[in-house]
Structure formats: C-alpha cells, structure tokens
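Example 3.2
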Amino acid sequence: MPAPEAVVFDAYGTLLDVNAAMAGHAARLGARWESLSGEWRAKQLEYTWVRSLTGPARHEDFWLCTRDALAFVLARHGIADEALARDLMQAYRTLPAYPEVPAMLRAVRARGVATAILSNGTPGMLAAAVEAAGIAPLIDEVLSVEEVGVFKPDRRVYGLATRQFGCSPDALAFVSGNAWDAQAAHHFGMRVIRVCRAATPDEYGLEEAGVPVVTDLAGLTDLLA
C-alpha cells in the first residue's frame, strides 16, 4: 500500500506515559501506587464512556473526568490528601513521552508523512502535554474530541482526522495503545497499528483482522515502508 497521508496517534497511553503521574509521587502513595494508577485510568475511561452513552447533556471534558476519577480512587482507598490530589492532577498535565517517541516522530516526518494526535484530551491539556513532553515541534496537528463533544470510540471522533486531512480513512494510519481505540479506528476504515507494551491477550479480534501489534513505537517506520 502507498505511504499514509498522515500517522494519527492516540495521546494518553500511546505517546504519553499515563502511569508517570503516580510514579512521580510513589513515595507519598506507597507500594500500591501502580494499582492505584491502573484504577485511576480505568475509572477515567469509564466516565468518558458513560457520559458519551448518556448523551450530550451529560458531557464533561476529559480534565473533569480525570479529576473525578482520581477523587473516586483516592476516596475508595481512604486517602484524604488534597495537596496530593492537586499534585497528581498537575502531574497529569505534564506526562512524559515514552522514551522512543521523539526519535520515532522525527523518522516519520523524515519520510514526508504528517503526524497528528487524536485524543480525548481537551485542547488545553494536549497543548500542555506535548510542550512538556518536548514533542510539540514534531506534531503537525492536534485534534481534540471537544470539537464534536463526544469521546472515543464514537465514530465522529475518528472523522475529525479524515476531515482535517481531506482524505478517506484508509489513507491514514492510526496508532493506539488501547485495544478498544484500535478496534474503533479499524472499523472506521483506518490502517491501524496497535501498541501493546505489556504481554496482554488479543482483544476484539484485532489479530484475526490483521492489525499489526508492536511492543513499542521504535519500529513504527518499518511498518510504514
């Protein structure tokens, strides 16, 4: 197949390390910080899905879903520390990129292929994130679900990318570390690559559908050749 018009990346959990916020405060959270981080992420996504399913009147942006998810997890574990909650939220605004990401983005752009982010994050969150991660100059377009007022995996979100680049879905490569996100983009018609940094089983029939799986983003350009 010809090279894609652009490579469109999910942000959180794909380019940006979502566990870094709690990892940075592990001394205050103790040995359970990893399980707390996993709960925070799961509850954050749950809130986005429920708000999407209950309609536009119940939409709250990703920052508020993230805040509410953290409040729930801390309360569930009896952690009543407002300063810690503020620090964790601030850390979420400045998540680092995974180590191989900058070099990978440079390599993609060196092939003459545009790069984009398509994310649940708000425009403000994404601007802060790419700047803090040092990848702002390597991203050509940053697309937020706030343009359509609904979260992934709604088809309207993936349509933001085809509208931005003025092309059909199969002219875009979509990269995500989330299997549910990869499944939605695949059914939208994009050329999908899934990043699976942990040894987790296949989901949603992605393997049978021929969706390539990589353990990190270092070799992504080989798949675009």
